[in-house]
Specification:
mainly alpha, two-stranded antiparallel ribbon, 29 helices
Length: 748
């Protein structure tokens, strides 16, 4: 680097000799050259800090975009309590958040400008908003994930709080230094006269934000303890509802379930998944309402500072190493603060999802009643036994006493936090009650003025048959009719969105293979290789097979998920990608020019011989290497399947297939066999839909039922078509397995 300022200073000092300045003064001035050089070096080294500031703004923008995505998802799915789908507590987002919080975590950087200090305060306000947004996502984690992520969040927030607490007494956040150039020109003043010292509200705001961050962290920990217990309660009630719903959905040999029964089964499970969603239950917690109040307080306080921030930005009052990037950080994080406040405040309306009665209102005002699920996990830990690695009765007594003492303190704190949250939650609850009664008054007036609207409102009533499937933590709280109707409408809308049109599917005999997709893929590869078939027919076959395999894959993943079947399914998937993308089968070109001179029989024989050679070659490779890898296993499975299929085709083809018409006959025969297998597999669609409705993982249940509803909509016509055909009178538990089909067809 060039020490320009240092060289200029030295040149100026040397020029003082021309003015006969005493040597002792110039010598004294030369002593400061080291400080000037060091200052210039620090300026050079801090040059990248501007880009680091832009990096902070970019990290903040990533968090904002994730919150916006959650808002859009909430509006799209009509869940105005805005579940956390994209913005979550995990390793990736915690890293991004820690980058966005670099300003308050920075202890070494000087914040001399007004914009610098307000940007640092804005970062703390932005963190409060993000924590309020993230509260429901705690319910999406299993126990281990919840423990690790809440621990990581605690470390981040505690570090942030401690750093800010260190900075507050130093005046970094609360003091303001304005350098007055006019005084310097008049005469020499003392430092206290040159630097004007003021004490604005920044220190008070920083203290408030620190308290808000600490309270929000406590709310996250308390909510985590309640979530652990509430999931077990909901799971128990879900099992009861699932048992009731499954009584009417038992399949009978020789017939498929009706669409009406499947509709009802999917609807029942959607009601259970929606009302028992861990995120929805968490959104209804008093801690969530309290976090919304804190979020509202934070945005009001920070908005109070914005006029001063805008004025400081216009005056370019920033003097930190981050330079003008401070303006970008302040603006981006304030936008995030505004956007991030929408979800926490909207979750106040989760109260309106339930029937509002005098009993419910009295329950909310009974703030000193703490439900068992808030403290049950702490009681479980209190009574749990600690297994020590060594035997010592005295030590066991000491540890047990300490454990009970700590548990009692934690239980007392948990009860205290819940009571305080209930008191704070009365603010949004009373606001929502006033809103609800205003709405009811308006509805009553509309019913008087427009009688037809009154009939529309009345239609919302009458869903008592769905009540057994509504899952709630507290039995005395009932889901509102409008909410129940909304859940029912949403599942009908999902089914309707999935409706597709399909051509007629016939069913015939099923050839002998060990996987549904594998024979379909191998038969299709033979059909594609026939050179005398029109390209349009081949493309149409590929399109139809691709569409059919989409649902065959669903059936296999739902009903044939054993290790044996998965290896065959993986081989089929690899083969299908090779056929559709490269028009090859195990590396062999399906559009080989030599096929143009071959008859249909010779092409089938070529596949048989090639499959036999590959299978033998892979077996020798396995013996030589002393083991198998995934690629060898897939090639061996594909080759063995092709060999068995081609042997069957050659055995059944006793007529002359050397003429041109024989290729068309073979193509039609292959297409028919493909349709046979797909049709037989798709008879399992009702069972696949039922299986998707019921999943043991509570965090994935809502998404699984959503997939089941879409699958029902997409396959309604297929199921109706298959219902009018003759289904083999097989045991329903045998239908998912193609080998069981062959055994039944061979020996009915």
């Amino acid at each position: 680097m060039d020490y320009n300022y240092t060289n200029l200073y030295l040149k100026t000092v040397n020029q003082l000799h021309d003015y006969q300045i005493p040597t002792n003064i110039t010598s004294l001035l030369l002593k400061y050259r080291g400080f000037i050089a060091q200052s210039e070096l620090e300026m050079c080294l801090s040059a990248p800090m501007k880009w680091i500031g832009m990096y902070i703004a970019l990290a903040s923008l990533v968090c904002i975009l994730a919150m916006v995505a959650d808002l859009l998802h909430g509006f799209r799915s009509r869940k105005l309590w805005f579940p956390c789908r994209y913005f979550r507590i995990n390793a990736a987002f915690l890293t991004v958040i820690s980058v966005a919080m670099k300003l308050p975590l920075d202890l070494a950087g000087s914040m001399m400008g007004h914009v610098d200090r307000l940007a640092k305060l804005g970062s703390m306000a932005f963190m409060c908003t993000m924590m309020a947004n993230l509260l429901p996502c705690l319910a999406t984690m299993n126990n281990n994930e919840l423990l690790s992520n809440i621990t990581a969040l605690c470390l981040l927030v505690v570090t942030l709080v401690v750093n800010v607490c260190i900075q507050i007494p130093t005046g970094v956040l609360s003091a303001s230094f304005n350098y007055n150039q006019k005084l310097i020109r008049d005469r020499i003043y003392t430092p206290h006269e040159v630097f004007i010292y003021t004490t604005p509200m920044n220190g008070i705001l920083a203290s408030i934000y620190v308290i808000c961050l600490a309270v929000l962290l406590i709310l996250h920990v308390c909510s985590s303890l309640a979530i652990l217990r509430s999931k077990r309660i909901i799971e128990s009630k879900y099992q009861q509802g699932h048992d009731i719903s499954s009584k009417d959905i038992q399949p009978s040999p020789g017939e498929l379930l009706t669409i009406e029964k499947l509709h009802k089964h999917v609807s029942n499970h959607w009601i259970m998944a929606g009302s028992g969603s861990p995120q929805f239950i968490t959104a209804c917690f008093h801690t969530t309402s309290a976090s919304g109040v804190i979020c509202l307080l934070v945005i009001i306080l920070h908005t109070y500072t914005m006029p001063r921030t805008i004025e400081a930005i216009l005056d370019k009052d920033y003097d930190s190493d981050y330079d003008s990037s401070m303006i970008v950080i302040a603006i981006v994080q304030y936008i995030g603060l505004v956007i991030g406040t929408v979800a926490p405040l909207s979750r106040w309306f989760a109260t309106l999802s339930f029937k509002v009665s005098s009993k419910i209102i009295a329950n909310h005002f009974n703030v000193f009643k703490v439900e068992r699920y808030w403290t049950q996990k702490l009681y479980d830990w209190k009574h749990a036994r600690i297994n020590l690695p060594f035997r010592s009765r005295n030590l066991e007594v000491v540890i047990e006493t300490l454990k009970r003492l700590i548990s009692n303190i934690c239980i007392g704190l948990q009860n205290g936090v819940v009571v305080i949250c209930k008191v704070i939650a009365l603010i949004p609850f009373l606001s929502m009650i006033c809103f609800l009664y205003c709405f009811r008054c308006m509805k009553w007036l509309l019913k008087k003025v427009f009688p037809l609207l009154g009939n529309t409102f009345e239609k919302l009533e009458g869903n008592n048959d769905l009540r057994p499937y509504v899952l709630q933590l507290e039995d005395e709280i009932e889901l509102g009719e409008r909410t129940l109707k909304g859940l029912l409408k949403s599942v009908k809308r999902m089914i309707k969105m999935g409706v597709k049109k399909f051509d007629h599917i016939d069913d015939h005999d099923v050839p002998c293979v060990n996987c549904w997709r594998l024979p379909v893929v191998n038969l299709t590869s033979i059909a594609v290789s026939l050179p005398k078939i029109q390209k349009e027919e081949v493309d149409s076959l590929l399109e139809s097979v691709s569409e059919g395999l989409e649902y065959v894959t669903v059936v296999e993943k739902c009903l044939n998920a054993t290790d044996d079947h998965v290896s065959f399914q993986n081989a089929a998937e690899t083969l299908w990608r090779e056929i559709t993308l490269h028009k090859k089968w195990l590396g062999n070109n399906l559009r080989d020019p030599d096929f143009r001179e071959n008859t249909a029989k010779q092409i089938v024989e070529w596949f048989r011989d090639k499959a036999k050679n590959i299978a033998c070659s892979e077996a020798r490779n396995n013996d030589n290497t002393g083991g198998e890898n995934d690629d060898l296993i897939r090639r061996s499975i594909g080759a063995n399947s092709m060999y068995r299929i081609t042997e069957t085709i050659l055995r059944n083809c006793h007529t002359n297939i050397d003429a041109t018409v024989s290729q068309n006959e073979l193509f039609d025969s292959l297409s028919s066999m493909i349709a046979d297998i797909i049709a037989a597999c798709l008879t399992n669609l009702p069972q696949a839909i039922i299986t998707k409705c019921h999943t043991s993982v509570i965090e994935e249940r809502e998404a699984s039922v959503y997939d089941a509803a879409q699958l029902l909509g997409e396959t309604t016509q297929i199921i109706e078509t298959l219902r009018v055909r003759d289904i083999p009178n097989m045991d329903p538990s045998d239908l998912p397995f193609i080998e069981k089909w062959r055994a039944f067809l061979v020996n009915p």
